[in-house]
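Possible regression after last week's pipeline update?

I re-ran a chain I had predicted before the update to compare outputs. Posting the input and the new output here so someone can diff against the archived version. Not blocking, just want to make sure nothing changed silently.
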Amino acid sequence: MSQKLVSTQDLVVWVNKKRLPMAQVEALSGMTRQGIFKRLKAEGRFIPRRAKDGAPGVYVRVDCAWCGLPVKRRKKLLMQLDTLRSFCNQVCYAAALENPSYVEWRQGSRLAQTVVGQHFRLRPGYVVHHKDGDQRNNDRSNLMVFASIADHTAHHRGRKIKPLWDGAV
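New output (post-update):
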């Protein structure tokens, strides 16, 4: 099959204005879907079809949660993740995850489960969390229970996860 020479403007009209199905654009241009996408993106002319009215997503300016530098993020993504914590790079993200007040103690989790077990029925898979990061502090008001490791990790990453049980309440 020989490659037809098609202008980028024709691709823009077919894909973005007329909204032809990709199979039809492939037939008209003699190009693959990936080739069409790459050509339009290189020209800065591709508009995602999933966006409302063919408009690009709305970006908002938020500050990096660690260093405070401005960062552009898609508003919809921030709303989906239910978080306002954004980071400008991987170094800031890793630095924010470090907890200098964390005190590891081998028996801390076991004792915490015993304390929580007196007030709340623990099931397999539930995770007991120390609010201050000190595993030696097994006071009831310092403990929370999450439904899974995923919820516990999401809590540490800044998402608003509601615990199953909070000892302070």
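Follow-up from reviewer: compared with the archived run. The mean pLDDT is 84. Marking as no regression found.
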